[in-house]
Each structure stands twice: as C-alpha cells, then as structure tokens.
Design goal:
196 residues, alpha+beta, Tubby Protein, Chain A
Length: 196
C-alpha cells in the first residue's frame, strides 16, 4: 500500500499549456510506479486560471495508487489571499489535518496541524535551494523533501520538478501521520510552489 512506504520519487508530468497538474509517484529504489497525484478542478476554475494567478485559486489534489483505485489522500485548498490553508482528507474523506502557509519565511514552509487544530509538525525550507525538512514540535526530523536534477532541457524550459520525499522510520506505525506527511511533501510543490 502507498502509505506503508517510507520514500517516494515524485515526477511532475510535462505538458504544453496545461491547466491542471499530474505527478507520477515512484519507488526511488526500484523505479516502479506506485501511484500518482492529480489535480482536479472545475472547468470554470480552469478558465479563470488564464486571468488569475493559480496560487490564488481553489484546487483539489487526489493521490491514488492507480486509475481504478479510490484516493488514499485528498488535499483541498479554497480561495487564497495572504495565507493558504490546505485540508488533508483520508480514504473516507475524513479530515486527518491541515497545513497553513507561513506569512514570512526565508526558505518557504508551512505548519502542519492535526484535525483538532493542534500543530504537530513544521515544514522548513532551505533559502539556498529546493530542500525542505519535516520537523516535529521538538525539532526532530520526520522526513525530508529534496529536489532531484531532471536534466538541462527540462530544468531550463519547464517548471516541472522531480523530488524525493523521505519519511523517518519513527512514523512507520502511524498511517494517519504518514498520509499527512506525504501530503505535506506533495503540497510543497503542488500547492505552494507551482506557478503555471
């Protein structure tokens, strides 16, 4: 099962004039595709993206193991102005928590909250590059998100990113936290960084 894994290689699909994003998820060791994350928005929102910045518009991202399976994690963000809030839902569409973007952060990042609103983790970016740490409230590492070189042509001419999400072994027994942290890793690019 997707949420039983500790590491994920995420590759954004490249497309000309795309209005929604799709990310393929692989096992970084074997190279086997183990899932995907697909943005799902209405036709009206797709149309508005020609005129309004994508980061301000509502979006829904579903994470599935394959096209015929039900989502294992769903992320929903409403309209955004200064601070984004992203709700994270489990397979039954019950809340497992949410993210809130930070207003001021050198390297980027956001806070991770349980469904009751308690902050359970912090996502901190490195101002020098595309590296993020997932930290618990005591500063212990829950995982990392690191960008991987995608090749000169792809890096120069597209905004498509490849990155690895690695979760700490200490969250192995907590599927809800694993789902929340996988969603946090995906949200760095899909929700908070993707520009076009």
């Amino acid at each position: 099962m997707l949420l039983d894994r500790r590491s994920f290689l995420v590759k954004e699909r490249v497309a000309f004039l795309k209005l929604t994003d799709r990310y393929d998820i692989f096992d970084p060791d074997s190279g086997e595709q183990i899932g995907f994350a697909q943005e799902e928005v209405s036709s009206f929102v797709k149309l508005l993206r020609f005129f309004i910045a994508k980061q301000l518009m509502p979006t829904t991202i579903v994470v599935k193991e394959d096209d015929s399976s039900e989502p294992v994690v769903t992320m929903k963000r409403g309209m955004t102005f200064l601070q984004s809030r992203v709700e994270v839902l489990d397979q039954s569409l019950n809340s497992i928590g949410f993210f809130k973007s930070k207003l001021f952060s050198f390297g980027g990042g956001f806070t991770v909250h349980s469904k009751t609103g308690e902050q359970v983790a912090d996502v901190k970016g490195n101002w020098k590059g595309w590296e993020f740490q997932l930290l618990d409230m005591q500063g212990n590492s829950l995982g990392t998100v690191n960008k991987k070189w995608a090749g000169a042509i792809k890096e120069i001419f597209t905004s498509a990113d490849n990155y690895v999400i690695s979760l700490s072994d200490q969250i192995e027994t907590n599927a809800g936290l694993a789902g929340l942290l996988l969603a946090a890793g995906l949200a760095i690019d899909i929700v908070f960084k993707e520009k076009a």
